[in-house]
Amino acid sequence: MKSVGMNRRSLISTVAMLPTLSRILLPIPVRAQTATTGDLLPSWNEGPTKQAIIEFVRATTTQGGPNYVPQAERIAEFDEDGTLWVEHPLYTQVVFCLDRVGVLANEKPELKDREPFKTVLSGDREAIAKLSMRDIFEIVLATQSGMTVEQFRADVKKWLATAKHPRWNRPYTELVYQPMLEVLSYLRANGYRTFIATGGSSGFVREYSEPVYGIPPEHVAGTSQAFKYGYDKDQRPILTRESKLVLDNLDAGKIENFWLMYAQRPQAAFGNSSSDDQQMLEYVKAGTGTRLSALVVHDDATREYAYGPAQGLPDTKVGTLSQAMYDTAKKQGWTIISMKNDWKHVFAFE
Amino acid sequence: MKSVGMNRRSLISTVAMLPTLSRILLPIPVRAQTATTGDLLPSWNEGPTKQAIIEFVRATTTQGGPNYVPQAERIAEFDEDGTLWVEHPLYTQVVFCLDRVGVLANEKPELKDREPFKTVLSGDREAIAKLSMRDIFEIVLATQSGMTVEQFRADVKKWLATAKHPRWNRPYTELVYQPMLEVLSYLRANGYRTFIATGGSSGFVREYSEPVYGIPPEHVAGTSQAFKYGYDKDQRPILTRESKLVLDNLDAGKIENFWLMYAQRPQAAFGNSSSDDQQMLEYVKAGTGTRLSALVVHDDATREYAYGPAQGLPDTKVGTLSQAMYDTAKKQGWTIISMKNDWKHVFAFE
């Protein structure tokens, strides 16, 4: 979740998609990888971007070299929405939450007359499209609280197994960028530990981060709500999700809370949006030695989407890239990843 | 940090110890380990406690067995103070903070007239001994904030390299329990990921967790304060420690925040105190399959300390074990670790 507004038509198409078709399993995108002796980034076109990634790894892992980084400090941080998987027309997790508002309102009828729930339930798509990011946060907190952690886990897994993206008619977990999966594996093969830092709720992402990205739940740092210890009717201890916001990853929160959780400045970071990736990418690039801050630019309307004022394209709000951030990237020497030019394939299923 | 009061004489002896003698490095306790084919717990006496640990590992790692746990779910959680290292006469981190109050008061003279700082600065040891755990939290937040994360890191490392425990006249980082280091290594050798869950501030513990315990900073879940993103005078991005409490690990907070950070119920947990380990140990033991909840009992006044009402010993407040918690441990089948009877050695230097 990254911006303070939503594109109206995007939201309409997403809402139109609900309820979703059923599908059983949580799929893992697969594309055969070249052996470790070969090219570990086969979905990347040759060129300066691919070379920059390879050169970063070479510089930081060459023992005795001037920019060698001990294995204990090899940390790489990835935004999720728009960096590892598709974020248009709407952040996947927001679709999940909107889908749950109806259920929630049946359990708590008082919500039917309360904003922003009233608007979502009204079906008034123009009004829904005007909800702010704070409204969205309220919906996320309300729809992801009140149940045990086990029940929430089951709910997320069930939703992921049935929901499909309106454009590709595929489960969301198949809409991950194959070139980025290769970067994750390539970094790990070189002793890096890989983390997700997301504006979305970590509870949601942790339910699929390991099978989809190879990233264990403890390496996912997201916006977080509180948990409450208690006992069920049989006096068995339980943990319940609370609606209280504890860690807010918007704006600079993503890098502030990354330190709170892990106390390390990553050696590399990948992001795409002005609203919560800028400080993370700045901070990483400002570290000593060789650092890699990389910006994924959505400029491929044919294979994925093209959006963002930085390219003179419409500002669709969801995952937007401002001209100012793009200028900062150029000035500070971030690596610019063009989906259109740098990626041979976008998805494993292509 | 675990209790709501402090032992007067303990605090006096600690305060008397300051300022500490200088010492250069952060030492790593070492004791040669038997090869992996031999006994991985050589500092443990033979008996039911050692057998319980070995049996737990066997049951959860035997493929095809009824209680096999996939490697992704092999998580073990350890309290630090009193479980991995000495917590008497006072929690090490509190000694560090008390040591900093004088420096802080020079920077912020207004604190000299404000409680609880006024009491600490007064040198009135009876009054200092009456400070509550909330007073201690206030001192921790005040003395661990206002500086960049790099400055704090340097301060902690410097202190650890110079401070010594009053009884052994050794750096605190040498006062780790050798049998517990062996358990950490043994679990990791069997595919477990090991974590610290502490009532203390994670920022402090993370500065030595890797060299001392083999636990990387991202696997330390402690009481946490906020961080603030900003820029220094040269417009370089910095992260500053704030005095705002974000995660409070006292009472049930330790297991609630463990879920917030990692979203997993550990398969094994080790603790010792009534004030913040009980819920963690209960929750772990209540999971499905074979679980290990283990309680370290301080009953060895000769080699370490003996304290706690559960043994009919004085309640020293610091890391206390109540009779009620001891009864719960027995009733729920936790593994009771007697320092006196189960440990062949307590420290590596013995």
Work out the helix count of chain A. 14
The biggest chain-chain interface is: A-B, 37 and 37 residues
Overall, the morphology of chain A is: globular
Strand content of chain A: 5-15%
Helices and strands of chain A: which structural class? alpha/beta
Q: Which strands sit side by side, in order, in the main sheet of chain A? A: 4-3-2-1-5-6-7
Largest sheet of chain A: 7 strands, mixed
Classify the oligomer. homodimer
Mean pLDDT of chain A: 88
What percent of residues of chain A adopt helix (DSSP H or I)? 25-40%
End-to-end separation of chain A: 27 Å
Helices and strands of chain A, in N-to-C order? HHEHHHHHHEHHEEHEHEHEH
Report what the structure shows:
- The structure is a homodimer.
- By secondary structure, chain A is of the alpha/beta class.
- Helices cover about 35% and strands about 15% of the residues of chain A.
- The first copy, chain A, has helices spanning about 10-15, 50-60, 90-105, 115-120, 125-130, 135-145, 150-160, 180-190, 200-205, 210-215, 255-260, 280-285, 325-330, 340, and strands at about 75-80, 195-200, 220-230, 235-245, 270, 290-295, 335-340.
- A seven-stranded mixed beta sheet of chain A has the order 4-3-2-1-5-6-7, sandwiched between helices.
- In chain A, strand 6, helix 13 (about 325-330) and strand 7 form a beta-alpha-beta unit.
- In chain A, helix 3 (about 90-105) crosses helix 6.
- The longest helix of chain A is centred in the first third of the chain and has 16 residues, at about 90-105.
- Chain A is globular.
- Residues about 1-35 of chain A have low confidence and may be disordered.
- At the A-B interface, strand 3, strand 4, helix 11 and helix 12 of A face strand 3, strand 4, helix 11 and helix 12 of B.
